[in-house]
Amino acid sequence: MQSSMRKFATGVMLTGLLACADPSSVRGEPTTRETLEKLTAEEKNVLLQKKERFEAMSAEEQDRMRNLNAAIASSDHREQLHSTLDRYHEWLKTLTTKQRADLLELSSDQRIGRIKELMQEQERSRLRDLGGKQLPEADIDAIFSWLDEFMKAHEEQYMERLPKDYADRLKGQEEVARRRSLMRGIIMRGPRSDFPMPIRDDLERLLPTLSQATRLALESAKTPDEKQMLARQWIFTAMISKVLPQVSDEELQKVFKEMRPDERERLERKSPEEAKRELTWRFHWQQWPSREGWRGGMGGPGFPGSFRPGMGGPGGPVSAGPGGGPPGPERKGSERDGSDRGPGGPGGIERGRGGPGRGGFGPSGERPPPSKFKNGERPAPAVAPPAENPADSQKGEPAPLQPE
């Protein structure tokens, strides 16, 4: 992706007018009467528009375009330059009208930086859409079996990192049930920073067990880190489908009716799959018991897109502002040492950055106003965690898997 950005940047540096002129207009391609007669009516109209755009330029701009054409035509790398201009022209078509207009207002140097940002956002959006696709049931079974074996191999390390009273209760459970409890904690709270995490070798052992279509989708990720992030999204999906109970349509409809009008309006703008995923997550969030042995109050669900440690807390309100995780139990000033506070929660799509939560691990966070949470109620997260927000991702890329 970085290589593509550099090539695009090269094209932008060549001219600040490429968005107005088609690449063929700087190639010096001969246009004879015979060529014109072979054009379709639509092609003739496009050519006329190019001519009108060129004539609308100032004399200085026209000279600049002519000089650019001459420079490219005489370059030893003219084919590569023409290819760069072609791809830049095609890429401009993927932008919204506003994005393109804003891009044209920037200087060449500023435009290079903005192009890089837009390309990164497009990559994240593509990967998020890919990760949100429904996995075949056989792949979910394969992923969950792989995950169960991984947690079995590292169970002692997980148990050592739990509060002693909760760990003692888990030890009294049957082996499979104990691992399900651990998984449920990871789903709803996110993994601790010191939890064992799968490394590349672990993921490589998973790949042969997946269907060809799923492996191809994974291979479409352009970098190793993207591939890991996509695999983690699928791992999280498998955990949810196997560990958390199924939710009926009636229960989802009840969750929808309890949402604020602005939240319902936002949800109705999503695809049916995205809307159901968010409603399902809200349901499980509301059902999550506070007695699962984690210190402090609810810090929010973990962020499945990257399995990053220390994530939690619902996102902020639509299109603005910091959100806040629900508070933990009341403490007097001297008791609030920050040791049991949860981390900030990720913002959702088109949202501000998530606010701090109050979970049982992670850095300390500011407590939201208590008036927002009456009678100990825990609000549902403002957005379903599986969809990663490009704006937030841009500020902090998920860390690659590391061996312990």
TrEMBL record:
<protein>
    <submittedName>
        <fullName>Uncharacterized protein</fullName>
    </submittedName>
</protein>
<feature type="compositionally biased region" description="Basic and acidic residues">
    <location>
        <begin position="329"/>
        <end position="340"/>
    </location>
</feature>
<feature type="compositionally biased region" description="Gly residues">
    <location>
        <begin position="310"/>
        <end position="323"/>
    </location>
</feature>
<feature type="compositionally biased region" description="Gly residues">
    <location>
        <begin position="341"/>
        <end position="363"/>
    </location>
</feature>
<feature type="region of interest" description="Disordered">
    <location>
        <begin position="290"/>
        <end position="404"/>
    </location>
</feature>
